[in-house]
Specification:
heterodimer; A: 849 residues; alpha+beta; Aldehyde Oxidoreductase, domain 4; eight-stranded mixed beta sheet; five-stranded mixed beta sheet; 34 strands; 27% helix; 24% strand; B: 493 residues; Ubiquitin-like (UB roll); Uridine Diphospho-n-acetylenolpyruvylglucosamine Reductase, domain 3; 20 strands; globular
Chain lengths: 849, 493
């Protein structure tokens, strides 16, 4: 934790505040308030030398030298085929014909395969098997794969693709939530969370407000596009190297598609060039493409999507539309809310039901709501099936309630922080979530208070409002938003992990787990944990390629919990080996001169060696011990297993304790807006987060900053725009703008806070993958705050993302409202999907780049 | 005449001829040479994952700059030394920029990392001072989705600590014997290159060729003979079209070895810029002489793009949102066209006829651009509105040039981009402004006239209504930024 609390950087461009912030009280990482006792049964440690160290990423040297290989970097075999696909140009239609025979005859083409060539199951899906790998009679979205084309070279495929004759009868597509509701097109069942009596609270409330919150999707934008390399084996076996967060799922889907046993498929994943949820389920289609070609041709086959194809044909973060009603007192205490939540699921179920569930779990964010109804519905539309993305539905739910809080503050003419603090979960009472879990061992009020103080919130709020009264050219906004994120898969059975640990005769160790490495540092952390278990050096432990051959039936690397699940499983395996080694060691020390009575309890592992505590001078090197054990015919390979204890959830009552614990934090952001262009500048952000005891502070700091900036992209510049035919127009970085290095806050303070109440999980660490993303909501709320300063009596609407266009549109709207005293309403603004009129696109004035 | 390209990669000499010359540098590196450290993500120069160093002969030695290898085709790289991420390691020792990234936890998934490493290595080549701002500028062309960039900046800022190390903080190019290459390039650079091959597919044949001239004379002669030749300088747009729209130019002429056109002249307050001048060179020039343009240059393109792209290419490409055009329109720049019949100068305001249609005849080439430096008392302001501040294609651009006299507007020139098929001058608005006092209400009124003079569309970047609103607002913004004080001063006086 020490290294994480880094000196604050102030950029040379920083102008907002030059003073340093006061810091004390609940100090970050300085006052450890407890002993090093670890209370997880069976996980007692003798040594934790590497725990808490900022060791470089497991693959850092490979990354910087380019020696770290990704799927498409693997040297091709001479007979390898390139795999590409033919996709639907329309959003909804009936396939009449495709000249696949003719295409297959073109120079350099080895084969064209349609759904009819899939010997097994063409439908797949993690929850419901409703998604075709290759379209059958109908196509459901632009970019949907219809046929696979395999060729000797990219050039041959490119040329052949110019000869595609695809005849599709177009059907009426459904794009927006409103259209889907009108057409009664839903995925799964409506879900309802209830607590108290909302209707009564609404009727009896001093104040009420209602409205609609609209939020767009987000592209994962992993740098390495979807890729897979399949090699045919003997007897119809398939070996597949996939860029996937979920090797077990790839194994399953490939086996089912090819109609072979799961045991005939090995799926491996060395690393991904980013995943962020986008490779949790959606790596399956490319994997099957490669596997099918390998199986049909007997040749190795490789698919690597182009960025454009990847963005056009894969799912994204779900767009949402939420109708909200809030009842509250004149002090700002929320007495009841009702959220009617609609997500745009795209054309198939994918993970939408789980994503929606997590939205329901997080629609309270950090606030106690005594009376509530949360209704959740997934709409089926003609877009690629929307899928997992860091936060997994949480961000949308939390954004919605932060919007409500901001509006209550505007309505009551109060500082939003006051409303937030007033409604924040308490320690005793006022701490029951909408799903019945008590928020325990948390420090939400303390986080908010400390951050408000260190960021000098109140003083800056005065300065900001003063600035807004004076400036004719710019607007400033300031907001503090808390974040509480539940850790565990809400589908309880997924909360399991297994690991394989092999100790070799030279004392080195190989570890394999079901977790995949996508940059988050999972392998680094596990390497640290395992090295500590044997008290050996970091260099003597190696994390192996993730493979279904070694770890079976594994959950996806997702839900932030992979270090928890796989780390504990690995430690569990180490402990099994250690106890056997202890027996060998105690016997050995008994046979030594001045022999001791054998006692495994006295054996200690320290600094690459082993000794009996009663005679610490007589040391046996770990390597020697392992050699002894081998001679004694002791097995030194073990499987470890872990299942998260205590968690449960009942979907009939919608009550339970789905989360093992919460990761929580808060952020304050200040923005500067150009009143004439709507352009936004993020001037300062302060983040404070409770991630427990950090296994690797350098990695965790990277997760916090990276997650936050990714979130900032979501709430500001990242906008998916489609034609009114449903074609994604922003399909590459030229038009889809993720944050670049110039988009960092000018002043950026990142800090962690010690939570003395958190005493569970591996070495009291906490999950860190997804939570920091949601710290970005302070940026969006700051924009809303800035807009609320324009006309004190008007509550501005603001969709998410707050692009320059959205901001200027709202500013203009406020100006008109103030002038005419009548609401100007731009109907196009109320949709969660940005559709650009085709007529205008094809007009004579076409002005392509 | 040579029929092969001469390119060194990480110190190794390669003579490339025939079909292989027609691939992008990144494909050549990854597929032909197996140097897979160079990653390709977007294939359009927007992510920087494929960044490599390219050393070109300048004043007798090799000058290295960072380039996006996905949009550099081999025919643009004759007589260059390419250094990839694999070339940084010397004697099995990783380079300080690599070590700095490791130490600062600058990589997460690792896919963008080689690109960042190369962009940092490019900073060392010019021995640039490492400040937070210079590092951000140098890395603007590299996207990372994992780190949030902070640790990458820290890595770059930590580089000075390696100065004291035994290996020191040497530019990567110093690890290679440049003398041999320089001599080799000197022998080859005066010889034009013509490569061709016959493309065969499904029984059809196609002759594909490219030409790399060394002199203007050769270039004009080739263009005369091959009217439909695709002329490539930086290639930052045409290469994207090859990668993305799969256009297949049959005949290409690369101007990269044409040193005659690599000049910036200033005479009698007249600036003349040769057609081979890159944005990097022009940007450096503008820093002292034209800060408004310099700022736009630093915003609209990354270093990798600035090192390749040219002003002439920006003009010839004829995009209505080309970032230099509002400036050139209000400054009344003239374009030198050279063809069969010699040279002629065309005012840029008469150069564009319609969307992507220009005054240029098939045999003509843009050879230089000239303009008069504005008077000190003139107010020149350029605006670029885009979704993301840096490295983004504009939603809307504007150039405003005002001459004031006795508190009145004597002359007004306005040009907007992104609001029609070509960049538009706004004659109505200009007429309205001329003779008017410098007050907010005048500019508010002018804004409304301006928004009626344009025909913006809705597209992937913005809606019609946003562009229309910008067209109006930008004049009020201009008033506040440039005239508000002026007016106050006058009032006070």
């Amino acid at each position: 934790m020490k290294a994480l609390a880094r000196p604050k950087h102030k950029s040379s461009a920083g102008t907002v505040s030059k003073e340093s912030s006061p810091r004390d009280k609940y100090t970050s990482g300085k006052n450890r308030t407890y002993s090093d006792k670890f209370d997880q049964p069976g996980l007692k440690l003798d040594n934790s030398k590497l725990f808490g160290k900022q060791l470089p990423h497991d693959s850092a040297v490979g990354h910087v030298t380019g020696e770290a290989l990704f799927v498409d970097d693997i040297t091709p075999a001479k007979n390898e085929l390139i795999v590409d696909f033919i996709s639907s140009p329309v959003a909804h239609g009936k396939i009449k014909s495709l000249n696949s025979m003719e295409l297959a005859q073109q120079d350099g083409i080895a084969g064209v395969f349609t759904h009819a060539d899939i010997p097994g199951e063409n439908l797949y899906g993690p929850v419901v098997q409703d998604e075709p790998i290759l379209a059958e009679e109908t196509v459901q979205y632009v970019g949907q794969p219809i046929a696979i084309i395999a060729g000797e070279s990219h050039e041959a495929i490119r040329k052949a693709k110019k000869k595609i004759r695809l005849n599709i009868k177009e059907l009426k597509p459904v794009f927006t939530i409103d259209e889907a509701i009108a057409a009664k097109q839903y995925i799964g069942e409506k879900r309802t969370f209830k607590q108290g009596d909302f209707e009564k609270a609404w009727r009896e409330s001093e104040h009420i407000l209602k409205g609609t919150f609209v939020c767009n999707g987000q592209e994962q934008f992993y740098l390495e596009s979807q890729a897979a390399l399949a090699r045919p084996g003997e007897h119809g076996d398939i070996h597949i190297h996939s860029s996937t967060q979920n090797p077990s799922e790839i194994q399953t889907v490939v086996a089912e598609a090819l109609g072979i046993g799961f045991h005939q498929v090995v799926c491996v994943c060395k690393r991904m060039g980013g995943g962020f949820g986008g490779k949790e389920t959606q790596a399956a289609i490319p994997a099957v493409m490669a596997a099918l070609v390998a199986s049909r041709t007997g040749r190795p086959a490789r698919v690597a999507y182009t960025k454009d194809d990847d963005m056009r044909s894969t799912g994204k973060r779900h767009p949402y539309k939420i109708h909200y009603k809030a009842a509250f007192t004149s002090t700002g205490k929320i007495t009841g809310v009702r959220f009617d939540i609609y997500s745009n699921g795209g054309a198939a179920a994918d993970l939408s039901s789980s994503v929606l569930e997590r939205t329901l779990f997080h629609s309270d964010n950090a606030y106690y709501i005594p009376n509530l109804i949360f209704n959740g519905v997934i709409c089926k539309t003609n877009f690629p099936p929307n899928t997992a993305f860091r936060g997994f539905g949480g961000p949308q739910g939390m954004a919605n309630i932060e919007n409500v809080i901001q509006e209550i503050a505007i309505y009551l003419q109060k500082d939003a922080l006051e409303i937030r603090r007033l409604n924040c979960y308490a320690h005793r009472g006022r701490n029951i979530t909408p799903y019945g879990q008590v928020v325990k061992n948390h420090i939400l009020p303390e986080i908010i208070d400390q951050l408000a103080e260190t960021s000098r919130y109140s003083k800056r709020m005065k300065q900001v409002e003063e600035f807004n009264r004076k400036s004719q050219t710019h607007l400033r906004g300031l907001a503090l938003t808390p974040m509480k994120f539940g850790i565990s898969f809400t589908t309880t059975f997924l909360n399991q992990g297994n690991a394989l640990v092999n100790v070799y005769r030279d004392g080195t160790v190989q570890v394999s787990t079901g977790g995949t490495e996508m940059g988050q540092g999972l392998n680094t952390k596990i390497r640290q944990l395992v090295a500590d278990e044997f008290a050996i050096s970091y260099q003597d432990v190696k994390l192996m390629i993730t493979s279904t051959e070694k770890n079976n039936n594994t959950p996806p690397t997702a839900a932030s919990a992979s270090t928890d699940l796989n780390g504990i499983a690995a430690v569990n395996a180490c402990q099994k080996i250690r106890s056997k080694l202890c027996a060998v060691a105690s016997k050995y020390f008994a046979t030594q001169k001045g022999g001791l009575k054998p006692s495994v309890k006295q054996i200690c592992f320290e600094d690459n060696s082993v000794f009996d505590q009663r005679n610490q001078k007589n040391k046996l090197s770990f390597r020697k011990l392992v050699q002894l054990a081998f001679m004694e015919r002791v097995s030194m390979g073990e499987r470890g297993f872990y299942q998260t204890p205590e968690i449960h959830f009942n979907r009939d009552t919608e009550k339970g304790e789905p989360f093992f614990y919460y990761t929580m934090g808060a952020s304050v952001s200040e923005v500067l807006i150009d009143r004439f262009t709507g352009q936004l500048n993020l001037e300062r952000s302060d983040l404070l987060i409770d991630i427990g005891e950090s296994i690797n502070p350098g990695i965790d700091r990277g997760q916090i900053i990276g997650g936050f900036i990714q979130g900032v992209g979501w709430v500001t510049n990242e906008e998916l725009r489609y034609s009114d035919k449903g074609e994604l127009l922003s399909f590459s970085p030229t038009t889809y703008k993720i944050p670049n290095i110039q988009d960092l806050p000018e002043i950026f303070n990142v800090d962690t806070i010690t939570n003395p109440h958190h005493q569970i999980n591996i070495k009291r660490s906490k999950a860190v993958g997804e939570p920091p993303l949601m710290l970005c909501l302070s940026v969006w709320a700051a924009v809303k705050h800035a807009l609320s300063c324009v006309q004190k009596d008007l509550c501005p609407q603001l969709n998410l993302p707050a692009t320059a266009e959205e901001i200027l549109c709202r500013l203009t709207e406020l100006k008109h409202q103030a002038n005419d005293n009548a609401a100007k309403h731009d109907a196009g603004k109320e949709s969660e999907v940005a559709l650009v009129s085709q007529n205008e696109l094809t007009s004579k004035n076409k002005q392509a780049a | 005449m040579r029929n092969y390209l001469l390119i060194y990669v990480n110190g190794r000499r390669h003579q490339i001829s025939g079909e292989r010359c027609f691939q992008s540098l990144s494909d050549y590196l990854r597929l032909d040479l197996g140097l897979v450290g160079t990653k390709v993500v977007c294939a359009e120069g927007d992510c920087g994952s494929c960044t490599v160093l390219v050393g070109r002969l300048r004043n007798g030695e090799l000058k290295f700059e960072g380039f996006d290898s996905c949009i550099q085709y081999l025919y643009q790289l004759d007589c260059t030394h390419v250094i990839t991420v694999e070339g940084l390691k010397q004697d099995n020792q990783i380079h300080p920029v690599q070590q700095a990234m490791v130490d600062a936890m600058g990589s997460q998934c690792g896919y963008c990392t080689p690109g960042f490493v190369m962009s940092m290595a490019a900073m060392l080549e010019t021995r640039e001072t490492l400040t937070r701002l210079s590092v951000q500028d140098a890395l603007t062309g590299n996207l990372c989705r994992c780190t949030g960039y902070e640790q990458i900046i820290e890595a770059a800022l930590s580089l000075p600590k390696f100065r004291s190390a035994s290996s020191g903080l040497q530019p990567a190019s110093k690890g290679f014997d440049q003398k041999v290459m320089v001599a080799d390039f000197n022998r080859h650079a005066l010889e034009p290159v013509l490569c061709e091959y016959v493309q065969k597919w499904n029984g059809a044949t196609n002759r594909v060729r490219f030409f790399v001239p060394c002199t203007m004379k050769e270039a004009i002669k080739f263009k005369q003979k091959h009217k439909n030749v695709t002329v490539v300088a930086g290639g930052t747009d045409i290469s994207v079209q090859i990668n993305k729209q799969y256009i297949e130019p049959k005949c290409i002429m690369s101007l990269t070895n044409l040193n005659e056109l690599d000049f910036i002249e200033v005479k009698n307050r007249k600036v003349k810029v040769g057609a081979s001048v890159t944005w990097t060179k022009l940007g450096e020039f503008c820093q002292q002489n034209l800060s408004e343009l310099s700022e736009i240059i630093s915003l609209f393109a990354s270093r990798q793009i600035r090192n390749a792209g040219t002003l002439a290419g920006n003009i010839a490409n004829a995009s209505p949102i080309a970032d230099s055009l509002p400036f050139l329109h209000v400054i009344e720049a003239e374009i030198e066209l050279t063809g069969n019949k010699g040279k002629r100068w065309v005012n840029i305001n008469r150069f564009y006829h319609a969307y992507k249609k220009t005054e240029m005849a098939p045999d003509e080439l843009i050879t230089s651009i000239r303009w008069n430096i504005p008077d000190r008392s003139d107010i020149l302001k350029l605006y670029k509105v885009s979704k993301r501040k840096d490295l983004d294609i504009s939603t809307f651009t504007a150039g405003i040039l005002l001459k004031l006299k006795h508190g009145k507007i004597k002359k007004a020139r306005l040009a907007y981009g992104g609001v029609g098929p070509i960049v538009l001058r706004l004659p109505e608005t200009e007429r309205f402004l001329e003779g008017k006092p410098v007050t907010k209400s005048v500019f508010q009124h002018a804004g409304r006239i301006a928004s009626d003079e344009i025909f913006p569309i809705s597209d992937v970047r913005a809606s019609t209504s946003y562009r229309t609103q910008l067209a109006e607002n930008i004049l009020i913004k201009f008033f506040h930024e440039c005239c508000d004080n002026y007016h106050d001063k006058k009032e006070a006086a």
